[in-house]
UniProtKB/TrEMBL annotation:
Keyword tags: CBS domain
Domain CBS: 7-65, 73-130
Entry superkingdom: Bacteria
Record flagged with keyword Signal: no
SMART domains: CBS (SM00116)
Protein name in the entry: CBS domain-containing protein
Pfam families registered for this protein in UniProt: CBS
Length: 130
């Protein structure tokens, strides 16, 4: 199975200059837990921000909800390709201790996000092989 078969293709991005509050609001409105951070007008993904980042890096530390996303995002997020094998991607995510990867196509354009919960487990793979 390939990443493109299981990824979420709904792409909602946020700017590095947007605030923690606007990121949280956008996550609520679009029902997602992570947003790629994109340089406006350029299209380059420079980071990723998750709901957990907002809680741990902003709220728990007593920072203002007006803190810019650039201050707490994960810089240069790991990417995978839409054609990558899901088993290999799941192993890589476990190795990196991440729950989500930004998905790019052959042109390095963002086409989705894949979450660890979207990917088949090794147990499922063994059962499917029977």
């Amino acid at each position: 199975m390939r990443v493109k078969d299981v990824m979420s293709a709904q792409i909602v991005t946020i700017s590095p200059s947007d605030t923690a509050q606007s990121a949280a609001r956008l996550m609520l409105e679009t029902e997602v837990g992570a947003l790629p951070v994109e340089v406006p007008g350029v299209g380059a993904i420079v980071g990723i921000v998750t709901d957990r980042d907002i809680v741990v890096s902003v709220l728990a530390r007593g920072l203002s909800t007006s803190t810019a996303v650039a201050e707490f995002m994960t810089v240069s997020p790991e990417l995978c390709n839409e054609g990558d094998d899901t088993t290999a991607v799941a192993a890589r995510m476990r190795e990196l201790s991440v729950r989500r990867l930004v998905v790019a196509n052959a042109d390095r354009r963002v086409v989705g996000i894949v979450s660890l919960v979207d990917l088949p487990t090794e147990k499922q793979d063994r059962e499917d092989a029977r």
